[in-house]
Write a structure and sequence with these properties.
Structural class of chain A: alpha+beta
Distance between the termini of chain A: 71 Å
Oligomer: homotrimer
Largest interface: A-B, 48 and 40 residues
Helix content of chain A: 10-25%
């Protein structure tokens, strides 16, 4: 008889540059998953709300908002990549492909691009990976790199340090064509008339007016995503080692404020977007906890044409999330999220 | 470069009697939305639980309970009507039309009927509106008036006071016909044998035995409904102005106790209802907060025939919600909800 | 005019050995119910996650995990059997039949097998029942006995003590056949390679590494299941009688830790299971409350052939749930759940 403690997930010494993990399970985007995440996130885009509208635009069904696509693909990589992570450091070059609609099944795989031991703390290191999600037809829905700080299982273990070049994942944003005979105008009342491409000016900063508190519901939400990281749901574990786990508090899965910031910005910049195109870089600049109220702003960095699509334009934005904390009598604004974000936005000239 | 604070929703000075708002987005009743709200609400009517039963009664699919229909239509009106409201004062003449089944898409519009500045506090006023929800085929599913107390954006602004007559919205309750060859009897065990029309007597008061605590889950529930009102989810905001926001507490969206009271009453008065017909008037007589346990009672005011439907009868009821509070050693029963409610209830003679 | 307090559910004196309750309502397994429970429970089996995979294995749709089947059938029996219960004592001989997929409608009925007054406390007694759940085609999906401690309504009432023999409910586990031409191998990366039948050895104890805190979300989860027991959701009631209700705390519905323990064990013993076969006996050995972090272990009691299915083997296991409590400086491990569980597990020789 043996007592077996199978530790799930990999540790720093398990990663080898070039290795490929095909993640387990996959996940079908049921109407349940869709409703919980699309709606909870405060997304306002009618493509994710109104089936009549989504069909009129040429989509097969209700369209998963970019945050949900990211959450489903990312969460599948957690067990192999970051179940034993200390922190997620950076999202890099996150690009969207074909749209995801209700009923699609997403699977994901991750290539290890680099492994490096921390010089300051040899019990830790940075793993650099490239994760790609595909639908049931093998089409890429999302690909991105990320860097994550991972614990070692055995502090004395040898680590396979190194770096390989990212794979060239063919991904291109697929959008339904603009069909002049479709009666887009008739449905224009369903989105905000102040969020067409023509409304945006480089340099503007939109301070989004809405905020949303995170409650302990983050634990259920994270579980529903199959995110197996223990720092988000294992209260007893974090309480036993407060020095290791931010004072013994459950930290909110970064995907929750990520999705909330996208949603909060939606009414001001995303209501007439056909899709998010690419996130060049993104970071959780401070942790979130139950009780935090999340706010967001969008800076418009540039407005440009969408090649081959005169009905659309591209917005280059920076989406920032923040929360407020109070120290004695002082209120401090803390940035919690930073995302360089490109959106494909409808032009009023064609749609309204 | 400009920093833009787009305030969403309208303020008192924005409303003009006669104006029509076609609300944005619309909402498809996915199986996710349906499960969360129908089930959470403690509804017991098998039309909303059991697809086999709903089909046997001639419905196209699982039937949205009246509370869900009301929540989806109402919530769509929040951004335009009450995102900047202080309080919802009254529901008036809420009438149901065609049934809503899973998969339907609901859209809503609101006519401004009246605007009036408060004589006691000129920073506030009352807006009187008429909201109508329709399905993907343009059929009316719900129409109602409500009065809501709305803040002014600018205390010095001029307000377009006035009143116009309500529109005559053609709405009639649509129910599947009674078909004697259908085997209703075979399914009679699925509903409560004590809740047929013949069981009710005018003057009876049913104290419903079940209660249900509201937790911070109200925040997620309200978000899932796309209700954008900040007083239900923006913890930081309400904490900064406790004098404006009931002591700095998040107030529970009235639709939550509304739906809970309907659900709690369901086992005693709604289990054999084919539909709710009309709510002549309704009010949230006290606010609810996380931690409150909601109870309900139904007073039977009258029992009458349903014209043209000998298989059904009409119950005129008053549904009341309450909670208990403890002040020092004293327990106080606080009424939180009042609704004059007509239901179409099956007769035992035809169905059991 | 009369004020009527209809008390729902039966009390000890209402039960008569041999009586049959056909439970009300039934419940369709919508995608909403499915997503909430399957995903929240930390289940890792791709049959319940990935529609492509479920189809490839010959199932009609996403497969409800055993915990969800149990929760839906059990919860339907609560109103009649245990709404007025003090405690659920034991599950006995719980056997699974045909698989439950998304979209199925389950109904349940319960036979009273025995009634016995407590010798220590005459206001209580034990009811022994046999509950069976069937799908829309009348096929048995689950049958089990349980013993539950039920309050008397009237302490002086006469109780119909007695015992009848259990019915012989014909139930047999239905599984899709093994079809050598199906490309199981191609999908083998979607489940854990360490959880094939060949991986298990009698005597091994697997201490599952993951834990999950229960929050007040248990209240919403229990409501979504239509479980009407008040001790899980009526905060005011339990606070008024702390001596009757474990100190005035809402007790977590046992189905929640039951489902969580199954889910937590899933990555180590259930990832390559085609089904759970039978639970010979099960008990909640201590109550759970919001704030408890649930852990689990699986003891492999025996490994044996599956008659007629050379592609499968049977694991006889004991699934134990536990939590930790701290008394002054002492940490105590408290067992909260015990389940003798048989699983049908794929053999690597046939599937990988």
């Amino acid at each position: 008889m043996a007592t077996i403690h199978r530790q799930h997930g990999h540790f720093l010494e398990d990663f080898r540059p070039g290795d490929l993990y095909r993640h387990r399970r996959g996940k079908t985007v049921t109407e349940g998953l869709f409703a919980i995440f699309t709606d909870f996130s405060m997304t306002t885009n009618p493509l994710s709300k109104n089936l009549r509208y989504a069909h009129a635009y040429g989509f097969r069904g209700l369209v998963a908002n970019p945050g949900l696509v990211m959450l489903v693909v990312f969460s599948q990589s957690v067990e192999d990549v970051s179940e034993n992570a200390r922190a997620n450091l950076e999202y890099i070059d996150m690009r969207f492909g074909v749209p995801v609609c209700v009923g699609d099944t997403l699977e994901a795989e991750t290539r290890v691009l680099g492994v490096k031991v921390s010089t300051r703390d040899p019990s830790l290191g940075v793993v650099h990976v490239q994760t790609t999600g595909r639908n049931q037809d093998g089409e890429v829905v999302l690909t991105f790199q990320r860097k994550v700080q991972v614990w070692k299982r055995d502090p004395a273990a040898t680590v396979a340090e190194g770096e390989v070049a990212p794979e060239d994942i063919p991904v291109s944003l697929v959008l339904p064509p603009y069909v002049p005979t479709r009666k887009y105008h008739d449905l224009a009342y369903l989105s905000d008339e102040n969020t067409y491409f023509e409304n945006f000016r480089a340099g503007d900063v939109l301070e989004h007016s809405r905020g949303r508190v995170i409650t302990t519901d983050h634990i259920m939400l994270t579980g529903i995503l199959d995110n197996t990281s223990q720092v988000h749901c294992n209260q007893w574990m974090v309480q036993q080692q407060p020095e290791r786990y931010v004072g013994g508090q459950l930290i909110v899965f970064g995907g929750i404020p990520f999705n909330l910031c996208l949603g909060i910005s939606s009414a001001d910049v995303g209501d007439n977007a056909l899709a998010d195109i690419r996130y060049a870089t993104g970071r959780h600049t401070a942790p979130s906890f139950a009780g935090d109220t999340v706010f967001a702003s969008s800076e418009i960095r540039a407005v440009r044409d969408f090649p081959g699509r005169p009905d659309l334009g591209i917005l280059d934005t920076v989406l920032r999330g923040h929360k407020f904390t109070r120290k004695s009598e002082q209120v401090e604004k803390v940035e919690i999220f930073y995302l360089e974000r490109e959106l494909a936005v409808k032009r009023r000239s064609h749609y309204a």
